[in-house]
Design brief:
- The structure is a single chain.
- By secondary structure, this protein is α+β, with helices and mostly antiparallel strands.
- It has 3 domains: 9-66, no CATH class; 90-217, no CATH class; 227-421, Orthogonal Bundle (hpI Integrase, Chain A), CATH 1.10.443.
- Helices cover 40% and strands 11% of the residues.
- It has helices at residues 53-66, 90-100, 108-126, 140-143, 146-157, 178-197, 214-217, 227-237, 245-257, 261-264, 304-318, 343-352, 365-376, 381-388, 395-399, 405-421; strands spanning 9-11, 14-20, 26-37, 42-47, 161-164, 170-174, 282-284, 299-301, 333-334, 337-338.
- Strands 1-2-3-4 form a 4-stranded antiparallel β-sheet, with helices on one face. Strands 5-6 form a two-stranded antiparallel ribbon. The chain has a two-stranded antiparallel ribbon with strand order 7-8.
- β5 (161-164) and β6 (170-174) form a beta hairpin.
Length: 445
């Protein structure tokens, strides 16, 4: 291979590059992993089967980890396990963590984003040249120290959070919250501990710092909405002849479960998910195959309103031919297909019903507001904690599923109040729905 073009990525003896002819043209658009084979005394390569650089880097990392003679956990001289944090680069530790753990999690995108912020810090330090204290050569030993984490905090505080469109243009930018910085630090700690816990270990050090407590860095959400605002949302979502079905289902499921937005869009009637079936008095917000984490998903009683919506979705699902059922059955869906969130529909709704659109007005507002309304309508603390997943069930509750009667009564009262203000807005095929700006009881100006 011609080495006139610098490698796109290199780790140990392996490097990532295109397969070039002598004249510099490409034999194939796909990227290749190259290395020098000392036994045959020639360069060898294997295709990554992709032209995407990020995917190619991931493929090279996998090859590198599979090579026991090359991985840093082994001594090149004697082949014995070796754990030296001073010799193990932080960038390598991040790559290995993502391959072996992060990329396998449901929260892979979140994990990747937090670690990308840490790598951006190394890039920024590297760009400082001689003035850099850290950079791409930063080892795990260095990253385990307080000097590193304090420098990262200081840098991160000045970096805005940005959203980009398909062209890479920044469309939204806001200051980074301290909580976002601490989330990246917590992810770095996980990376460093993963290196020390590997078998055999790749690092002999662990971080001596912890992320700052949530109560110290998280800004308490103060915004809540009442039944009147909820009624406006339902009237808007249920307005006939509009493409607002996903938003409508999201509102219904949120009111009936007080679940986090991610759990709401994850509700499915597909039998293989084992969340609900016709006649079931409960719904399991944690589908079959998903491991529970700190954001516990509870088994909840099915309110009559939710039961009607689930049954109708189940009938739609069962009416499909068996080959067509794959990927269907989601309660919150777009033309039958799963969605990640309702953010765009939510933003449009807030604008149309003339509600604020600040940071505290994201879809998570429903969970905070409904918890407040439920408590003010008589829900007891113990019931509300279990219903919202703030308290993991005891061993007894593994056998005896909680019915949370005070929460159920409170939610049914809230639903009745919304229905009174916006008649028909709770129906899946809305009938008699009033316009969002003309709710029952509104005074004429």
């Amino acid at each position: 291979m011609s080495r006139r073009t610098p490698p796109l990525y290199q780790r140990g003896k392996y490097w990532l590059a295109a397969d070039e002819r002598a004249d510099g043209t490409l034999r194939t658009p796909n990227l290749y992993i190259w290395w020098y084979d000392s036994e045959t005394r020639r360069e060898r390569s294997t295709s990554t089967a992709t032209r995407d650089v990020a995917a190619g880097i991931l493929a090279l990392d996998r090859v590198y980890l599979a090579d026991k003679n090359e991985a840093p956990a082994f001594c090149h001289a004697c082949g014995q396990p070796l754990a030296q944090a001073q010799a193990y680069l932080l960038t390598d530790a991040i790559a290995d963590y993502k391959i072996e753990w992060g990329n396998t999690r449901a929260s892979a995108d979140t994990i990747s984003g937090r670690l990308a912020h840490a790598v951006a810090f190394l890039d920024a330090e590297q760009a400082l040249g001689a003035e850099s204290r850290f950079g791409h050569s930063t080892s795990c030993a260095t990253a385990c120290g307080t000097v590193f984490v304090n420098a990262f905090r200081a840098w991160s505080r000045l970096q805005p959070v940005e959203w980009r469109n398909g062209k890479g243009e920044v469309t939204v930018s806001r200051p980074r919250s301290p909580a976002a910085t601490e989330a990246s630090i917590a992810q770095l700690i996980a990376v460093l501990n993963h290196a020390a816990n590997a078998e055999p270990a790749r690092s002999d050090k662990r971080p001596i710092y912890k992320p700052l407590p949530a109560r110290q860095v998280q800004r308490q959400r103060r915004t809540r909405i009442g039944v009147e605002e909820l009624a406006k949302m339902f009237a808007y979502a249920a307005e006939p002849d509009r493409q607002r079905g996903s938003l409508h289902a999201f509102l219904v499921a949120s009111v009936c479960t007080i679940a986090r937005p991610g759990a709401v869009v994850d509700i499915s009637v597909a039998p293989d998910r084992e969340q609900w079936w016709p006649g079931s008095p409960t719904i399991d917000l944690n589908p079959q195959g998903r491991t529970q984490n700190k954001k516990h998903r509870a088994v909840l009683p099915v309110l009559p309103l939710l039961d009607r919506w689930l049954r109708e979705e189940y009938e739609t699902y069962m009416a499909l031919k068996i080959p067509d059922r794959a990927g269907r059955g989601w309660l919150v869906n777009y033309h039958g297909r799963a969605i990640q969130d309702v953010d765009r529909a939510w933003d449009t709704m807030l604008k149309n019903i003339e509600m604020p659109a600040g940071r505290e007005w994201r879809p998570y507002l429903l969970r905070h507001s409904l918890a407040t309304l439920a408590r003010n309508n008589g829900a007891e603390k113990w019931d509300l904690e279990g219903f919202m997943g703030h308290r993991a069930g005891s061993q007894t509750e593994v056998y005896a599923i909680g019915e949370f009667p005070t929460v159920v009564r409170a939610l049914n009262h809230i639903i009745a109040s919304i229905e009174k203000l916006a008649p028909g807005s709770m129906h899946r095929n809305a009938t008699g729905v009033v316009a969002a700006g003309k709710l029952a009881g509104d005074k004429k100006m």
